[in-house]
Structures are given as C-alpha cells and as structure tokens.
Amino acid sequence: MSRANKSFSLTKAEARRIWLRAQRLDTQAPFGEGPQATAAAVEHLGYVQIDTINVIERCHHHILWNRIPAYRRADLRQAQSVDKSVFEYWTHALSYVPAKDLRFFLPAMKHHRREGHKWFGSVRTADLRKVLTLIRRDGALTIRDIDDDVLVDKEHLWASRKPSKRALQLAFYTGVLTISERNGMLKTYELTARHFGWDKPPKPASAAEITTYLLDRALRAQGVVSLDSICHLDAPSKPGVRRLIEARVRRKELVAVALEGAGKQEHWAEPATLETAADGASELLHILSPFDPLIIQRKRTHLFFDYEHRFEAYVPKEKRVFGYFALPVLAGDDIVAAIDLKTDRKSRELLLQKWSWVGNGARRGARKDLKRRIEEELHRFERFQLAEVGVFGNPQAPHRLARDNQSFGGVMDKDKSILEKITDTMKDIANIAADAADHALKAEEAPPKAEERAAAYIPLAADGLVSDPMMVPADIARSRPQEQTLSPETGSKGRQKEQTAKGCQKIRREGSEKDYSEETREGGRSGDEESR
Known about the structure:
The protein has 532 residues and is α+β, with helices and mostly antiparallel strands. The protein is 34% helix and 13% strand. Among the domains are: 7-22 and 205-274, Arc Repressor Mutant, subunit A; 106-196, Orthogonal Bundle (Arc Repressor Mutant, subunit A), CATH 1.10.10; 285-409 and 498-507, no CATH class. The strands form four sheets. It has a five-stranded antiparallel beta sheet with strand order 9-10-11-12-13, covered by helices on one side. A three-stranded mixed beta sheet has the order 1-7-8. It has a three-stranded antiparallel beta sheet with strand order 2-4-3. The N and C termini lie far apart (60 Å).
C-alpha cells in the first residue's frame, strides 16, 4: 500500500480474480442446485437481467446456468411463482430481484403512482380500472385473457396497440400488480399484495437505506467497485453513494484502490477483500451471456479484461466483428474467445456461426488446449440449450465440431441487424399505405380489409423496455454517430486479434424430443407473446 495516497495498488489480474470470486465464477456449483440455489444466486448477485432475445436460451436462464451447473428452467419458475423468493422489477433493466429486497423498490413504485411513468403517460384511467377489476374479480391473468380491447395507434414503433397491455404495464411499475409467472415472455399479472400474501405491505426503505443497499450490493457482487459500477445507469444516486463511501473510508471500512490502467477513475474495496488479491486464478471455463453481470458494464469489462465486447445485433452484417449474438468465453481469469451461436430448435442443432480468438486466446501456442476445453463446454451448453424444460439432454449423444481454421457457410450471415429490420418494416408499412390509397382511388375496387393488412413485427425488447445500453430505440439510434468498427487485428496491449471461422457449424443431437421453446423468429427474438 502506498502511504503517500493511502491507496492499495492492484494489478488487473488481481482485480479480475477478485471480481470473478465475487461473481462466483471461480467455483464449481457455489450455490448448490434446485430452486433454493436459484434464489441464493439471485440474492448474491443482487439481480439477474431479463431479456427477450432467444437466438440461444434467454439470458436470465443462461446467467443462472453458469453459476448452477445443474440449473433447470423450472427452478426459476418455482422460485418466482411458488416459493416467491424472487420477483421482477426494474434495476438498470428489467430483472429478477430477491424478494427480501422489495422494500428498496417501494419508493420507486410510490413515485410512479404519484407522478406516472414516462413510458405510459397515455394510459387512461378507465383502462387501468378495467384490468384491475378483472384481476381482483377473476384472479391472475395474461394479456391473452383480455380479448375485447379496441386497438389504438402505436405511440412508437415497439409500443403495444392494446390499451389493456399498457394499463397492465403501468400497474406493474406502480407496484399494484406484480408478475406472478412467466412463460417465455408471456407474463401473468397478479395483485402484488395477494401474490405475496400481505396483510399490509412492508415498510418502504428510506433514501439512506437505499444508498446503503446499492453500495453493499455492489461490494458483494463486484468486490472492487467504482461509482459507475455501483450506480450503473443511475447517475442521480452517485452523490449519495459517494458520501457514504467517504464515510466508510474514514472509518476504515473501505480502502481506496489504485487499479492498474484506471487512470483517475476511483475504486474502492473492503479490506478483507483485498487480502485475497494474491490468490491463484480459477481453471474453470464459462460461455457467458452478453447480459451477464461480468459483461453488461462494457467499460468496466474492458478495463479489467482488456476485452471490448460488441453487441452487434444492431450492427449491419458487413460491419460485425464477432457476430450477431457473440458470447464471450472465460477461461480462468481471461476472456479468450467470442463465439457466435444460434440454436435451431426445430432441427435440434446448435449452430456455430463464428469463432473469434481474443486476448490470450489469440496466441497460437495456447489454442490447442483452449479449443479442446471450449468444445467440451460447448457440448454441455448444447445439452442445456436443447433440453426439455427442467430436463437435461443425453450427455452421450454424438456431436460434430470443426477443426481449427475450418471455414463454414452460416445461416446467421443472412440475419439483418435490428435497425435494418425496422427500416424494412417502415418500408412495408409505407407500401401497405400506398396499396390502400391505390385501392381507394379505384371506385370499382373495395379497400383492403383490416384483417388482410400485413402485421409488422418489430424485433425490439419486449414491452418497449430497453434492457441493454446498446439496445436503443430507433429514433435515438439514428441521432447517434455511427459506431466505429473495431479492426480485426491490432497489435498493442489490450487490443484484440481475431481468428475467425466464417459461417456455420452444426453441433447435432440425436433424438427428436419435443422442442421446449416457442418458435424462434428470424433474428433471435421470439417477439412479445403478450401482443400476439
């Protein structure tokens, strides 16, 4: 420790190992198995992000599977709907949160009841009263249970045309309703008090308690923290968190950390955490979700791992570096590859679109052993992808993996970026309008019937909620400067060298078990089942 600035110096390697330990990615089955393990994992991490993309298994299941090797999708359903140990609400995105932490979210719910919600300002009192009356009278329901809506115009491209759906969403954010069950992306809404069996709701946390909660949650799940990592996409909380940090530093409960490569960005850690900095690296290997807590804060991931992850579903095909939905591969304490995968559930195949070596994986001498270990984990990942709900596949079924540097032809290359799909959709809408006008001008021809007009699918986050900083609505995206494409090969420290297997590799499964998932739409999003 430097006495001049009273900070503890940490190398990137030491900081990575602390973060991986905090994320429980350095231990095999740290939470055990079953619904209790699922609840324990969510409690330790603080939240598990939910997202609609299902080009492979959805991210909330993927994140839990990486920490619970025997994880079953039914375990999360048990925790949410039966044990009620987790619930859904907004953190930096829609997430699963420990039920014991609900009181820290009650002030936000109260704020939305008082001030409304910026996304649902057009909800009419009559529509809100209608859905609440139905649920009070008939019990929990989904949007499919309401079939008498008069459709309205969309306020934006990804909004629902169903007034009842908007009302349900607003009631969710105000805390009057909660999501009692989720099947795919179809949500069941229930009265919050009835779901949890409250005679009266818990006492809302104070502002000071919420600040303490944010700091303690980050210290537990991150080990070494910064203001940005504690208050991810929550700038208003930063002043209060900083004051609390300074108070703990004065009491010697926290230590300032001088992190290699961080420059002026301040970091802190608990003294007991820093005592483990010299511990050795884990040998485990994980295929991570791009929404994993280790990846979602992109600048932090880059600082700790010298790896710049790119979420490229919004990037035109010709400008993608890693692929449409690339998954970072963690080996020990290094990110060594990014693998673009897609699950073909109909054919029961896991498709390998592209394999890019990064970091230490770019060194040819290390590839042979790494490739063998990654392939072994791909087999396990495939069994998880293709298993029935709550069941794992046959581990003895044969697989086919490519030899190093083999070239393939890939179906994902046919996928368009989401922004391109929005452009195509707008063109379709314009064409429909033009056709309708043409029909109207011809007296002998009747205008097209409503049921004959094309239904446009907008492949954005369900409910119109942007769950990733890269997932911006189209109007915002257009106002941003075009994202710079990384060079496939650069030479200095912290940059990436890419080894690519172009196209598609199929990892086949024997058998024809029934597909557990809803039918996949092009581009990996199943769509919002609520709006169908």
